[in-house]
Write a structure and sequence with these properties.
By secondary structure, the protein is an alpha/beta fold. It has a domain at 1-31 and 59-94 and 102-212: 3-Layer(aba) Sandwich (Rossmann fold). It is 34% helix and 23% strand. It has an 8-stranded mixed β-sheet, with helices on both faces. Strands 1, 2, 4, 5 and 6 form a 5-stranded antiparallel β-sheet that branches. The protein is globular, with a radius of gyration of 20 Å.
Amino acid sequence: MSVPVFSVRSLCVAFRRRGALQPVVDGISFDIEAGETIALVGESGSGKSVTALALMGLLPRSLAETRAQSIRLGDREMAHASAAQWQKIRGAQMAMIFQEPASALDPVFTVGSQIMRALQRRDACGKTIARERAVAALAEVGFPDPGEVARRYPHQLSGGMRQLAMIAMAMAVRPRLLVADEPTTALDVTTQALVLEKLEALQRRHGTAVLLVTHDLGVAARCARRAMVMYCGRLVEQGPYAQLYRRPRHPYTRGLIDAVPRLATGGPGHVRGIPGRIPALSAWPQGCHFSDRCERADALCRQQFPPAEEHDGVRVACHHPL
C-alpha cells in the first residue's frame, strides 16, 4: 500500500485569549495521495484558513497553540517540528497559495525576483539559472510574455495575473503538497476558470497533492475527487465529492448544496438558505455546533457532539444523519 504524500491525525488549534485557550480547530484527520485534490469546504468563519495555516506551520506560537497526534509529509514527522525545521520544508516540499495575492506578494520586488528567491533558497542555484527557471515557471502558467511579467511589480498586474504569478511561484519549486487557500476569491468567472485550468494542468504534470480550501462548492466540484465539510472547527462530513453531492448525510452539507443555485438538486427555484449564521468563537453551542441551526436537532444533539461514523463510504458526525 502506498504511503500518502501528506497525512494528518487529530489536528487541534486554539487561540490564546486573555490568558486562556479558545479552541478553533478540533480533531482534524485526513490523508492526501500524490496527484490528488481534496477540498476543504465550509462557510467563512468555519476554521478552514486556520487549518491551512496550521498545516503549513505558519501560525505564530505566541498567538496560537497547535497540537496534533501526527502531521506527516511522506515519511517525515512534522507534528513537533521546530520553527527552523518548518522553514526548511516550506517553499521546498510544501507550498501555499494565499487568497489575497496582492498582500502575499512583496510590493517592493518584481515578480521574477520573488520566484528567483524561492528557487535559490530551495536549490542554491545561481542567479542566471534561477532567472531562467522563474521565466519558465511564468510561461508554464500561460503568460504569453513571461519575461515581461517577470520584470513587473505586483501592483502592475491584474488580480488574475497576480494569482497566476502566485501559482507559478508555488509550483516552481515542485512541492509535494500544495495548499491552495481560496485561490479564486474576488476573481470574475472567466478568470476563475483560467486559474483553475492552469492549476489543474500543473498538478497533473507534476503529480502534486493539493489541499483546496474553498467556500465555493462549484470550485470543489470541478477540482476535487474527495471533500471534507467543516463547521465551527470540526469535520462534519467527508468522502468522495460525487457521493456527498448526490446524497449528503449531514444536514449542514445538505444546506450548503441547497444554498447554491447551480448545485441545488431542484434547480435555481429550489435554492434554500441555512437558517441563522455561523456563531462567533465564544458562542459555539455545546454538543453539536450545528444544533442551533439544524431542524433535526434534539436534546442529544445539544448535549453531546456526535462521533464520526461510516455511512456507505462517507464519514459523518451526526446523531441523526439524512
